Predict the structure.
Amino acid sequence: MPSVSITPGTNIRELVADLPIAQDVLSAFGLQCSGCGVSKYETLEAGAKAHGLRIEPIVAALTQARLSGRVPTIMNEDKVRHVGPPGAFKRRGAFKAVVPVMSGKGGVGKSLTTALLAVGLRRANKRVGILDADITGPSIPRLFGLRTPLGIERDPNEQPGAQAQTRPLFVPATSRSAIEVVSSNLLTPEEDTAMIWRGPILSGVIRQFYEQTLWSDLDVLLIDLPPGTSDAPLTVLQSLSIDGVVLVTMPQALATMIVRKAANLVHQLKKPILGVIENMSYFVAPDTGKRYDIFGPSYADQVAELARAPVLARLPISPALMALADSGRIEEVDDPICDELAAALDRALAALPKVKETISII
């Protein structure tokens, strides 16, 4: 059987299956997505682009490894991410779409839904970032196994004056599959450090994460919002340029009532709702295949009717998914629901008129 060719268009998973040492070579470049679910869909060129790396040294190193049977020496400059130059005023990098994930109700799985959306979009070869706006209760870093504090760099666009210092900018953390993440849990070495901040400070931190971060050019920036309809959601909905909101609900009358409040807030601010996702919708017993409505009948259609938006997906309760989430390996989930979520979000974005408006509350 002929060996898989090594070209920019070679699928990562197929190459690693044919040439196991390829995973060590890719890891040496920082391309750790060779060991996660994205590699099932991604080519070498797409993976290199997602991580901000040049493809030529990667192809050369893989070819050399096939010939020699060992990982060649990788030059430091070939392992450095090449983030694009800072973008326009008010943010770093260009975002094709900015999508907050909102509920109003705590405990419905906004962070998990955000993570699954990001994983699905990456498997569709999209450049994705997550701004974790749940400042006092952040979950995103744990889901992706990120623990190293955010880096800080000087703004390359600013020229220091005689007495002035250039403004420092955050460098987003990068997951194994090149999803960029900024979160308050990455501001300190210990993930259980409490952020004891009042509302105005929280709003300022969210704006800083958006405006003072060296984001790459992204296809989608997802914003994981905290519960409620006050400071943090208002900051995102009123002062950031968003394309539309995804509402997360669950099949419980109390949760549905609070999510309807969030939908009404979005409508009052004249922002579009892209769709509704019902989490914990049902459970399928692994031994019998029988479906159980653990939290009662679905209310997704009623919420969607109020939101004047489609139901994007109904997510089941999955112990296997929870195990991956708790261990920081959410990118390893091998479930078509990720692809379905990403495709549904793409359709919802494509159906919206591309009109953006930024209203400042400052």
Remarks:
- Confidence is low (pLDDT under 50) at residues 84-91, 357-362.
- The radius of gyration is 21 Å.
